[in-house]
Design brief:
- This protein is mostly helical and 165 residues long.
- It has three domains: 42 residues, no CATH class; 61 residues, no CATH class; 41 residues, no CATH class.
- The chain is 55% helix and 8% strand.
- The protein has a two-stranded antiparallel ribbon.
- Helix 6 packs antiparallel against helix 7.
- It is rod-shaped and about 115 Å long.
Length: 165
């Protein structure tokens, strides 16, 4: 739209209402200064409305989510969201940007699956490792014909395997 007084592009647009009558005013920068109007400062919408920029980013992310697809099994992210089940191991790589925060919250900050440990799991693992070591020592003692040592290791293994009272 051009200025009401010349052919320059208008930078000020205003509707003036007097006595019930409305009149549109369009002025270029020179005529706007002469009429006492402040000139608009050229700003991006994201600067004027900061939340508008974040809304655009969220919409772009949602669009990316809708189009995300696993190359290996063909599962789309939309179907994953409905079923909450991934189709194959490659889905983790395909959807990681979208599901990383979900995995972190479910795994107390970890980005990979931790699983669960049984109650007393550390003790069970220690006993299993000790048993494996004693079995190797027993086999080595028998191979070296150290029968007294082998008998002692056999008895220790029996004691380890029997339940404690």
């Amino acid at each position: 739209m051009n200025c009401d007084h010349c052919d320059k592009p208008a930078v000020v647009h205003e509707i003036v209402i007097k006595g019930g009558d409305s009149k549109e005013v369009h002025l270029c920068s020179d005529h706007a200064i002469a009429a006492g109007y402040p000139l608009p400062v050229e700003q991006h919408l994201a600067d004027i409305f900061p939340k508008l920029g974040s809304v655009a980013k969220v919409e772009a992310a949602k669009s990316k989510e809708r189009s995300a697809k696993c190359a290996a099994c063909g599962l789309t992210f939309t179907i994953f969201r409905k079923s909450a089940t991934l189709g194959c191991p490659a889905c983790y790589d395909a959807f990681m940007p979208m599901i990383e925060k979900v995995i972190e919250s479910a795994q107390d900050g970890a980005t990979h699956h931790l699983g669960r440990s049984p109650v007393g799991g550390a003790e069970i693992e220690r006993v299993q490792n000790l048993r494996v070591k004693m079995m190797r020592d027993l086999e080595a003692a028998v191979a070296a014909e150290q029968y007294e040592r082998a008998a002692k290791l056999r008895d220790e293994l029996k004691a380890l395997d029997s339940p404690s009272p």
